Amino acid sequence: MAAHKKHTEYIETNEFPGSTHLDVSVYYSLGGMNYFSGRGEERGFYLSVTPVKKEHGMVSYEMFTGIKMFIHPANRFSEKQLKLAMEKSKPHKQTLIDSLKVKRKCA
Predict the structure, then answer these.
(1) Is the pLDDT of residue 107 over 70?
(2) How many CB atoms lie within 10 A of CB 104?
(3) In 10 A of CB 89, how many CB atoms?
(4) Cα(97)–Cα(9) distance, rounded to whole angstroms?
(5) Which residue intervals of the chain are DSSP H helices?
(6) What are residue 23's phi and psi, to 5 degrees?
(7) Which tens digits make up the pLDDT trace of 15-71?
(8) Beta strands 67-73 and 21-29: pairing type?
(9) Burial bucket for residue 100 (CB in 10 Å: 0-12, 13-18, 19+)
(10) What count of other Cβ atoms lies within 10 Å of the Cβ of residue 37?
(11) Contact 46/26 with Cβ under 8 angstroms?
(12) Which of 29, 52, 56, 67 falls 20 to 30 Å from 35 in CA-CA distance?
């Protein structure tokens, strides 16, 4: 699956074991079938929050630990649409972070 990604920020945290930061990103996805979840996904922009470990200039991701939300439909990627999606994602960032905290406590 091809995707255009734009990191919006790394947020320092100690709330997730083995992680030092949260990677908060807005990215474009072509959509289609997600073979990990077994569901179809919409084409457009998503907001994702993923716990990561940053050390010695490297960033480590643990599979299946993040959470994402569909933000804005788009038939193709453009910088203008990316800026719009980044603006639309701002009010949802804390909600997604809180949802991740609940998800990780239940796991």
Answers:
(1) no
(2) 15
(3) 21
(4) 13
(5) 79-89, 93-106
(6) -90, 110
(7) 888 899 999 999 999 999 988 888 899 999 999 999 999 999 899 988 888 999 999
(8) unpaired
(9) buried
(10) 9
(11) yes
(12) 52
Residue found by looking up tokens 């643990």 in the block = 62
- Residue in the block written with tokens 């960033």: 59
Q: Are 67 and 48 in contact (CB under 8 A)?
A: yes
Q: How many CA atoms lie within 13 A of 3 on its CB side?
A: 19
Instruction: Locate 4 and state its tokens.
Output: 């255009």
Residue that has been written with the tokens 């990561």 in this structure:
52
> Which residue type sits at 35?
Y
DSSP secondary structure string for all residues of 1-17: --EEEEEEEEEE--SST
Query: Positive or negative CA dihedral for 59, 102, 29, 33?
Result: positive
How far apart are the C-alpha atoms of 28 and 17, rounded to whole Å?
29
- Tell me 106's DSSP state: H
